[in-house]
């Protein structure tokens, strides 16, 4: 991989003006198969931005300049899905899946279609062995609220998720941050072994120990977005010595380099040129206790690199490299290569969804909540009598409550669906693991079984305690009506969650909407002004309430919300339209969601 004169800027919009900020200024370098390239620099120097650019994650941005080529070919979609692995700084994994399940699903989704299911599963087991994860393969990953594997093991699982496709290029963002030095060393050793197998590894690293530092083949040292050094890691000290910068104490080379890149020259001898700059003409403002300021040191380092090394490196990069034609072909193919067919993707994601949320399925808390509400309702409306108009009015209140309860509950569970999975979705879509439509269908259908079990329990308790109309037909019609209401309400929750992708905002909007639909539901107010009558038609509570009345009383209570209940077909159609309409809206919102990669 070669990168030449890579630049990146961001446009920052202020209150009064728009400013451009240069993040990277002309970074040039290359890394070959078999090598580990480390990107080092102080915090904010642009390491992550450079890594994202090299890994094709900021590829569609207009703010980038220069060129990045892989085997002499520009970036392509097939390269992204099958030849590049990208390990982000945060481990974005499902907390309730075990290590083996996580890697198996990654293998099933990402490995090429030419492999059988057994071969893909075997690859996951091989990776577990390669990464030394056998002991914790049946432990769940864990997260903030559930205890799972250790930080180092989690990082290895994240790396495993990427090396499973046997990528030619592996990018890692701070793979050792937060780990103790022995675990960090183990991870870097593993990266070295991956490189030795003929792969190219590029990693950002914050402050490696000296043992770690010596494991890198090449080094890019950045300071405020400019290149201070590119070359062999083993030659970096000799280079800085050649420009007159030497450590005065025995210290870790990484520490020395970071100090220099920060412009901190305590315990560092500086060249006479720099000393002269302080004494001749630079004036008070540029000096601190007779020492050059960080800005002067930084300028000197950038200039030294530009004049002594940069031109030579650029020349080297311009020299043509003989290329294997087969590799060239693979890399330049513009087609996106999916590891599984749409239907396979749907099945894998459906099973993964069920496994990830299996703990939710038998949540006694939810079951208790529903059954106790049902029991309270049953007691309050115990064997209610509908022979008098007053009794009828009373029971209609119960039916309205059922329509509101099953309109309210699913909205508030569904709004969490997409915002909670945003990070995983972004990461997996950036790696082109599956089609969005397959994910959407799997995610929205894998919750249905639970969502339909709870209302059955609820109705079994309420229906007979409250003495609603006896008979199989009214009971099952009531159940179907409640199901329709739940699926429609879920659609609304999914659409709100997907369009806002922020739980606070989504909860606020959902409460206002659900309250409006409830008020317009035909129980509290019969006639509403014509210009807001559309609210009533969008309210699933209204249609559900009308259908429940129809099932229970047929023609004894024909007018609700100012309209007659005829065949009930109109209400069924309205609910079905909502089931699909809100889901289509949710899908469009997800499609429009900007993923990190611009995928
Ligand atoms: N979209 C953006 N808008 C504004 N500034 C940005 C944007 N992206 C990056 N930057 C700025 O660019 C600089 C480099 O960011 P980057 O994350 O690449 O640094 P880094 O070297 O990886 O830092 P760290 O080691 O702290 O993670 C920072 O000053 C950051 O604030």
TrEMBL record:
What one GO molecular function would you report for this record? ATP hydrolysis activity
| Topology relative to the membrane | Multi-pass membrane protein
Q: Where are the transmembrane segments?
A: 364-384, 396-418, 448-466, 472-497, 509-535, 572-590
Q: Which InterPro entries match?
A: AAA+_ATPase (IPR003593), ABC2_TM (IPR013525), ABC_transporter-like_ATP-bd (IPR003439), ABC_transporter-like_CS (IPR017871), ABCG_dom (IPR043926), ABCG_transporters (IPR050352), P-loop_NTPase (IPR027417)
| Keywords tagged on the record | ATP-binding, Membrane, Nucleotide-binding, Transmembrane, Transmembrane helix, Transport
Per the database entry, which stretches of residues form a coiled coil? none
Q: Name one GO cellular component term.
A: membrane
Record localization? Membrane
Instruction: Provide the primary localization.
Output: membrane
The identity of this protein, by name, is ABC transporter domain-containing protein
In this protein, which residues make up the domain named ABC transporter?
1-249
- One Pfam annotation reads ABC_tran
Q: Which family does it belong to?
A: Belongs to the ABC transporter superfamily. ABCG family. Eye pigment precursor importer (TC 3.A.1.204) subfamily.
């Amino acid at each position: 991989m070669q990168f030449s004169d890579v630049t990146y800027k961001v446009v920052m919009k202020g209150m009064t003006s728009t400013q451009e900020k240069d993040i990277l200024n002309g970074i040039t370098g290359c890394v070959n198969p078999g090598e580990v390239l480390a990107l080092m620099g102080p915090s904010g120097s642009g390491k992550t931005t450079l890594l994202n650019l090299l890994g094709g994650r900021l590829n569609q941005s207009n703010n980038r300049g220069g060129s990045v080529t892989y085997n002499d070919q520009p970036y392509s979609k097939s390269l992204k899905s099958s030849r590049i692995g990208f390990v982000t700084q945060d481990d974005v994994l499902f907390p309730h899946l075990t290590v083996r399940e996580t890697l198996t699903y990654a293998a099933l989704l990402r490995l090429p279609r030419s492999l059988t299911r057994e071969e893909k599963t075997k690859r996951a087991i091989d990776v577990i062995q390669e990464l030394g994860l056998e002991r914790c393969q049946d432990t769940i990953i864990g997260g903030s609220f559930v205890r799972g594997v250790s930080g180092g093991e989690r990082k290895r699982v994240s790396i495993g998720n990427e090396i499973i496709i046997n990528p030619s290029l592996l990018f890692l963002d701070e793979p050792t941050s937060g780990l103790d030095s022995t675990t960090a060393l183990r991870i870097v050793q593993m990266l070295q072994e991956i490189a030795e197998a003929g792969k190219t590894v590029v990693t950002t690293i914050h402050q490696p120990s000296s043992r770690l530092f010596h494991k890198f083949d090449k080094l890019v040292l950045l300071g405020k977005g400019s290149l201070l050094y590119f070359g062999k890691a083993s030659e970096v000290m000799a280079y800085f010595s050649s420009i007159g910068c030497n450590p005065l104490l025995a210290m870790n080379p990484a520490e020395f380099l970071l100090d220099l890149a920060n412009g901190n020259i305590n315990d560092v001898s500086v060249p006479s040129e720099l000393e002269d700059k302080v004494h001749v003409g630079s004036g008070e403002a540029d000096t601190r206790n007779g020492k050059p300021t960080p800005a002067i040191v930084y300028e000197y380092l950038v200039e030294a690199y530009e004049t002594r090394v940069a031109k030579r490196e650029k020349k080297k990069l311009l020299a043509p490299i003989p290329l294997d034609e087969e590799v060239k072909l693979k890399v330049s193919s513009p087609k996106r290569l999916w590891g599984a067919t749409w239907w396979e993707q749907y099945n894998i994601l459906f099973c993964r969804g069920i496994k990830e949320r299996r703990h939710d399925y038998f949540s006694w808390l939810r079951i208790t909540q529903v059954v106790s509400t049902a029991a309270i309702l049953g007691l309050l409306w115990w064997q209610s009598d509908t022979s008098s108009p007053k009794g009828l009015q009373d029971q209609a209140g119960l039916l309205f409550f059922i329509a509101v309860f099953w309109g309210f509950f699913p909205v508030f569970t569904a709004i969490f669906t997409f915002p909670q999975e945003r990070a995983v979705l972004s990461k997996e879509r950036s790696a082109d693991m599956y089609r969005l439509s397959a994910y959407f269908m799997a995610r929205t259908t894998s919750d249905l079984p639970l969502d339909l079990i709870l209302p059955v329990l609820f109705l079994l308790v309420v229906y007979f305690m409250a003495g609603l109309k006896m008979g199989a037909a009214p009971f099952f019609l009531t159940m179907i009506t409640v199901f329709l209401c739940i699926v429609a309400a879920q659609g609304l929750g999914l659409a709100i969650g997907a369009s806002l992708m922020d739980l606070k905002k989504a909860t606020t909007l959902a409460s206002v909407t659900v309250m409006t639909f409830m008020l317009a539901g035909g129980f509290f107010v019969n006639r509403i002004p014509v210009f807001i009558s559309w609210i009533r038609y969008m309210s699933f509570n209204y249609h559900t309430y009308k259908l429940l009345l129809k099932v229970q009383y047929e023609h004894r209570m024909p007018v609700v919300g100012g309209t007659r209940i005829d065949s009930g077909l109109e209400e069924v159609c309205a609910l079905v339209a909502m089931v699909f309409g809100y889901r289509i809206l949710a899908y469009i919102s997800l499609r429009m969601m900007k993923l990190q990669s611009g995928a």
